[in-house]
Specification:
Length: 539
């Protein structure tokens, strides 16, 4: 089967041919025809099976008719991470060369206003992470009433990252008559509930057993010590044994371990780069681009890069830590052996990680063999385990995974002189580098003490006079009698009450004014007023 038999438009077929694709993958061959018929599709396939083109190609054919309006995109693609969203944007640029479509990328870590400006001009396709999409919607910059096709990619990864509530909210904001395409590598119960709620009579496309690994990947286990410094040495010995590495990805469970491995391998001469969630978007994109251009040989990453990243020529995958979730193992090693290519995956396992390994083997229904290191490598690992972890101390915080309470504190304690209560013993432990003063040279502290000793003693404070005692009450009265009469208090006279003034009546206090002789406003008085005005005056 070739792409011309799938029902794609001529312009889409021309773009596929220009991109160099000739034969569709199984997921593409089974998902594209029902998608072109506007039916809901639920696709289950392992990573690296070509799921991105399975929804990009039918979307390009369906978007040839119609135009996007301002703030009302026509299609929506939801991705769990920024890297996956940017990867889908690149797929639209590659396969949509013959189409004049506007694509808006809405992801975090970059400026908000340029994204809003692109939506205002009209976007045919919006590729977004759930959080940033809801930010645009809540600010009134985006309307979802014009969406006629929804794609939810890497749904199981959405579940792991806690995006399911956001997905449910977004689906309720979209039109009921939309077309939905749902892709996932695994089908946990929560994802099954989501598909039942938001997909209408979907076409189930399952091209491989869920949670299976590609047959083109050679999987091996490597015994590793639990101590971090010895485990890093085991990783370096493993990398040196693989002479056919074109480029590889080294996975760790924690972001602090990623930063630690980057410094450690760089010091020992390996060409490495780091990728984890604490990096800003520009640094993450720069590191990914350098890895794709073969400028970086080993990419050290956390699980943020484990799913969906399409880097076709990854030859090796190294798991520095066994993933705690068995499904993450499938996604990690799925970065190699893509599109029928051969790949190798090595997982370093300590005794403490045995339970995680058992869950992985039960999931993939396959027992993974062990890879034996050389005797020289084993000896180097044992030697490294016996040495103090000075390198971890130089790296900064020290301890396992950069813990503050680890080797970093021991390093600081070694550098400080040990506190001794006996001052004589402490003086004996002081370094001999201190320059002894000459015997005849007077030290400033001793001179100051001598000057203090020669100062005359202070005069004693003058004692206060005794407080004058109060005279008895009787004596005070006799003394008061002897004083002149002027100074004595005069005898109080009996109070004489004045006769109270009777209150006058109000009319007497304020007598009315006699206005008989006063002229009115017309200049007449009562005596000279004309007869025709007399009635009005009396009134």
């Amino acid at each position: 089967m070739n792409f011309s038999e799938l029902g794609l438009s001529p312009r889409t077929l021309e773009a596929v041919t220009a991109a160099g694709y000739t034969t569709p993958t199984p997921i593409q061959a089974e998902a594209i025809p029902p998608a072109l018929q506007r039916r809901d599709v639920m696709g289950l396939a392992q990573t690296g099976s070509g799921k991105t083109a399975a929804f990009v190609l039918p979307m390009l054919s369906l978007l040839e008719k119609g135009r996007a309006r301002a703030r009302m995109p026509r299609t929506l693609i939801l991705e769990p991470t920024r890297e996956l969203a940017d990867q889908v944007r690149e797929a639209f640029e590659t396969l949509g060369k013959m189409h004049n479509l506007s694509v808006a990328l809405l992801i975090g870590g970059v400026a908000f206003e340029p994204q809003a400006l692109k939506i205002d001009r009209g976007a045919d396709v919006v590729i977004a992470t759930p959080g940033r999409l809801l930010d645009h919607f809540e600010r009134g910059k985006l309307l979802l009433t014009g969406i006629d096709m929804l794609v939810i990619d890497e749904a199981d990864r959405m579940l792991d990252m806690g995006f399911i509530p956001d997905i449910e909210r977004i689906c309720k904001l979209l039109p009921f008559t939309r077309q939905t395409m749902f892709f996932s590598a695994t089908m946990p119960p929560e994802i099954q509930r989501l598909t039942t709620a938001f997909l209408h009579n979907p076409v189930r496309v399952e091209v491989s057993r869920p949670s299976s690994t590609a047959e083109t990947i050679t999987q091996m286990l490597v015994k590793a010590p639990h101590e971090l410094k010895a485990k890093r040495e085991a990783l370096r010995q493993l990398l040196r044994t693989q002479t056919n590495v074109k480029n590889g990805i080294i996975f760790a469970n924690r972001k602090t371990t990623v930063a630690l491995l980057e410094k450690s391998l760089a010091v020992h001469g390996f060409n490495v780069g780091a990728l984890h969630g604490d990096m800003d978007q520009s640094a993450r994109l720069k590191t990914l681009q350098g890895f794709r251009n073969n400028e970086i040989t080993y990419l050290i990453a956390s699980d943020v890069a484990a799913r969906g990243l399409d880097i076709p020529e990854v030859s090796h995958v190294f798991n520095f830590d066994v993933p705690t979730h068995a499904e993450d193992y499938v996604h990690r090693i799925g970065r190699t052996g893509r599109a029928g290519r051969e790949g190798a995956a090595f997982t370093m396992v300590s005794k403490e990680e045995g339970k995680y390994l058992k869950a992985i083997e039960q999931l993939i229904k396959k027992e993974i063999p062990y890879f034996e290191l050389s005797a020289e490598a084993e000896a180097a690992i044992e030697t490294r385990a016996a040495e103090p972890d000075r390198y971890a101390a130089r790296e900064g915080r020290g301890g396992r995974d950069g813990d503050r309470r680890g080797r970093g504190r021991e390093r600081d304690r070694d550098r400080r002189p040990r506190e001794v209560k006996d001052h004589g013993e402490r003086a004996a432990m002081e370094p001999a580098k201190r320059v002894e003063r000459a015997e005849g040279e007077e030290q400033p502290q001793r001179v100051e003490r001598a000057e203090r000793a020669e100062r005359p003693a202070r005069e004693p404070r003058r004692e206060r006079e005794p407080r004058r005692e109060r005279e008895p009450r009787a004596e005070r009265s006799e003394a008061a009698e002897q004083k002149p009469a002027v100074a004595a208090n005069p005898p109080q006279q009996p109070r004489q009450d004045k006769p109270r003034r009777e209150r006058e009546p109000r009319n007497d206090r304020h007598p009315q004014r006699d206005v008989s002789d006063a002229p009115d406003h017309r200049g007449f008085t009562e005596q000279n007023m004309p007869a025709f005005l007399t009635r009005s005056v009396k009134a």
